[in-house]
Structure formats: structure tokens, C-alpha cells
Amino acid sequence: MYVLTQNFSLYWHGFLGTVQLTVYASILALVLGFVMASFRVAPVGSFRVFGTVWVTVLRNTPLTLLFFAVLLGLPRFGLVLPFQVFAVLALGCYTSAFICEALRSGINTVPKGQGEASRSLGMSFTQTLGSVVLPQAFRSVIPPIGSTLIALAKNSAIAGAFSVTELLGTYKTLSELGYNIIWTFVWIAVGYLIITLSISALFNVLEKRWGITR
Amino acid sequence: MTAHALQGDLESTALYDLPGPRTRRRHFLYGIVSTVVILALLAWILYLLFDTDQFTAAKWSPFTYKGIQELLLKGLGNTLKAFLYASVLSLVLGAVLAAGRLSVHRPVHWAATLCVEFFRAMPVLVMIFFIFVALKVQPLPALVAGLTLYNGSVLAEVFRTGINSVDRGQREAAYALGMRKTQVMTFVLAPQAVRAMLPTIISQLVVALKDTSLGYLITYEEFLHAGKLIASNLDYDLPFIPVVMIISPIYIGMCMLLSWFAGWVARFERRSVKTEAVDVAPAEPGTVLPGGPR
């Protein structure tokens, strides 16, 4: 119990670090995932190929390998950035592949008649996608995107092992200070539970508000 | 006529008309421009690689030595060993936890639910570090135990979803024939559920295979660890990029092979007559959203 109260600022720093990583990487992943999903349904062949390769490769890359390559590899090309930026890049790119697949399968759940009807009304590609298909797809992608973002929050723990300030990394300092290691981990676990459960609560609210069962 | 209707792509939504001659020419132009941009990007990366001397003989010479090849192979073997243990154990744990969650006995049900929800919400790395640091376990058992707890809990949810997705008539018919609860589960529901969920189960095993690389962080001597040893060797001028260029295709290739197999199983099971009373799940790993699909 004392572990938390005596080292509150250390825990708080770690907690904020994890939240920051999660938020920035989520934004990057959502944007990149949206771009890749629109590439994958685009009428231009080379966009589709690019999107497919991006998703297939990143979905099958172990995240540790990606961190290893990005955090230790990119500096060798003379690209020197803070480790936190590298971590956000790695996490965001990795998760964007999953977001892309969630969005694409969401687009596919919209009945084809919807698209055909809007086509026959003379709507363009942008209009069809923007005002008919995506609003309906949005409702069915809430749970998979929530699930992906929870996975992202949990994956951010890997960044801690590559010396980025975040929650899991606090255990090292605390065990050097001689605190009870079991209690140290209990409080780390509580921190992660707070983050993952609040993301899932947020998405449950979104699901209640907008989700529909088709 | 829409584009996908003509191409016979039944899964997609009709987003745009079949392009006319002018649109086709414009798309062709876009295609050429984007291909050039992508090629230029690749060329730039290649230039950077040459510019920073990644292709010098000194950096690639270590891979010709037998000792280093054996080191890499041993690392790969250790990765596969951890994957094998973790996947078998997590399948067993998943089956046990799913049986617990479907149990009609309240205490068993609550215990299993608590276990599944807790381990799904916890980062797998925290569990591995806890077992490794706090319980002072050797790296391999710590890695396998962490992966088993996490993937077992996710698989439990997968199994449960599968059991619940079997057509209700199957269960009712089995009870009407006078079968007992356990018989209904083992002879009627579980076989169909496993068939339906096989693509998801294999995809979850891909997650387990990917996560074996976490062993690198607790000094388990797996594939990435072997790569790191070679990469930090001063004798060969720190061949970090060559190591990454050797390791990642092998790692990604293994995962792709397993993912492709999951997709193939999904297509196979969908055609099978034995999955008529249940929907075959797509080849995607299990969800981690608490209170997910019922």
C-alpha cells in the first residue's frame, strides 16, 4: 500500500506517459487506418496494392520486432528523434493496419443495395461514400475499433521496455529503491486496468448511442 | 452497372460506377503517378541504405560463418519451442475457462469470468514481467506462462462465442434425445463450435507467435535476441540493418503463412456440410473489448 502513496509522482508520471502514448498513437492509427482503408477500396489499382501490402505486412509483424527496427534502426539513417516519437510512430503504424481492416469490414457490412441505390440517384463516389455508406458503416465499426484501441493501450507497455517513460517502466526504479515487488506490480496492474476499462466504457457508451444490430 | 457487379466481387459495396473511357484514362494517369511516387520512395530508401554503407562486405560477412548461422537457427528453434508450448497450453486453458464460463454452477461461473476479464484487460508484457521479476521464474517458463494466461483467456471467449453461435435447435434436439448436459456439450455443441471457430483460433495463435518476440525483453534466447547479439558485434562493424533485413522476412513470413492458413481454413469450413447449423467466423483474432459479442 505504501508503495503507491510514497511514490505517487513516479506512478503518476508513468501513468501520464502511457496515456500520452495511447492518445497520440490512437490519433495516428485512426488517420492512417482511414487513409489505408480508402486506398483499399479505391478504383486505382496501385493504391489498392499499396494498401494491401501495408496491411498484410504490418498485421503479421511482431510489435517487438517493429520497435526493435524503428527505435534502434532509424537513428542509423541519421534520423534522431526523441524515443517517445519513435514509439508513437511504431505503435501508430502497427495499429493502423488493424483499424484499416476494421473500417473495411465495416464498409462491407453495409448492404450493397444502399450503394446501388445512391448510385442510381446519380451520386458521385465521394457522395456515396460520405453520405450513404460511411455513416452506416460507422455504426458497425464501433466495437472492433474499441477492441483495437484497447489492444493499442496494452501494447504501449512494450515501449517501456525500450526506455520510454510509461507505466510498466516504473517497476525498475521502484525495485532498485527496494520496495516490495509484488505490490509494485499490483499498482501497475491497477493503472492499466483504469486505462483499458475506461476505453471500453467510452466505446460502450458510443455503442449504446449510435450502434445498431443489423 | 456498377464496377463490382461486373467483376463478380460479391463482398464489396457498390461504391462507384463502372468507369467510362475518360475516367479510365484519368485512373490510369493516377495509377502511373502513384506508382512513380511509390517507386521513388523505395529508391530513396535504397539510396539511404547505400549512403549509410549498409551493403559493405564487412557488415554481411558474419552470415557466412557457421557459428552465427547456428546461433540464428538456435534462436529460431527457441522461438518455435515457446510458440508450441504456449499454443498447446493456451488451448487447454481456453477450453477449461470456457467450460467454467458456461457452467451453471454460480461460483465456477464467476471465478472463470473474473479470470477471463482480468487477463484480457492486462497487457501480456506486464504479466510476463511480473512472473519473471516478482516470482523469479526462468525466462522460458515466464514467457510461456504469460502468453498462456493471455491467449487462454481470449480463446475462452472465442470458444464461448462459438458454443453460443450453434443453432439452438441442435441443443434442443440433443436434449430431446435424452442426452445429458456433458454429452450435449461434448458430442453436439463443441465439435460444431470448434469447426466454426477454427479460423479465429488459428488467427489467435498468430498473435501468440508474434508475442513470443516479447521473450527478447526478458532475455529469453529467442530469434530477436540472437539477432541483437550479432548486431552489437563490433568486429563486423555493427551490422544492425543487415540483421533486421534477415530476421524480419523470416519472422513476418512465418506469421503470414499461419494467417494464410487461417484464411484457407475459413474458406474450407464455409464450404463444408458439417457447419450448416453454425456461422463460420472470419479469420480474425479474438476481440479484447470486455463484454464483447455474446
Automatic annotation (TrEMBL), chain A:
GO-annotated cellular components = ATP-binding cassette (ABC) transporter complex
Q: Which residues form the ABC transmembrane type-1 domain?
A: 15-203
Q: One GO biological process from the UniProt record?
A: amino acid transport
Q: Which Pfam families match?
A: BPD_transp_1
Q: Which CDD domains match?
A: TM_PBP2
Gene Ontology molecular function terms on file: transmembrane transporter activity
Domain of life of the organism encoding this protein: Bacteria
The protein's UniProt keywords, in alphabetical order, are: Amino-acid transport, Cell membrane, Membrane, Transmembrane, Transmembrane helix, Transport
The entry's localization annotation reads: Cell membrane
Report the membrane topology from the UniProt record. Multi-pass membrane protein
Transmembrane segments annotated in the record for this chain: 12-37, 49-74, 80-100, 181-206
Q: Which NCBIfam families does the record associate with it? A: HEQRo_perm_3TM
Protein family:
Belongs to the binding-protein-dependent transport system permease family. HisMQ subfamily.
Q: What is this protein called?
A: Amino acid ABC transporter permease
Source organism of this protein record: Streptomyces roseus
From TrEMBL, chain B:
Boundaries of every ABC transmembrane type-1 domain copy: 76-262
Keyword list (alphabetical) reads: Cell membrane, Membrane, Transmembrane, Transmembrane helix, Transport
Concerning its family, UniProt says: Belongs to the binding-protein-dependent transport system permease family.
Q: Does the keyword Transport apply?
A: yes
- One family from Pfam that matches here is BPD_transp_1
Membrane topology annotation: Multi-pass membrane protein
The protein's GO terms of the molecular function aspect are: transmembrane transporter activity
Traced from the root, the source organism's taxonomic lineage reads: Bacteria, Bacillati, Actinomycetota, Actinomycetes, Kitasatosporales
Give the protein name, as stated in the record: Amino acid ABC transporter permease
Q: Kindly list the GO CC terms recorded for this protein.
A: ATP-binding cassette (ABC) transporter complex
Q: Where are the transmembrane segments?
A: 28-50, 82-102, 114-135, 240-266
State its location(s): Cell membrane
Q: Which GO terms describe its biological process?
A: amino acid transport
The source's superkingdom equals Bacteria
InterPro entries associated with the record: AA_ABC_transptr_permease_3TM, ArtM/GltK/GlnP/TcyL/YhdX-like, MetI-like, MetI-like_sf
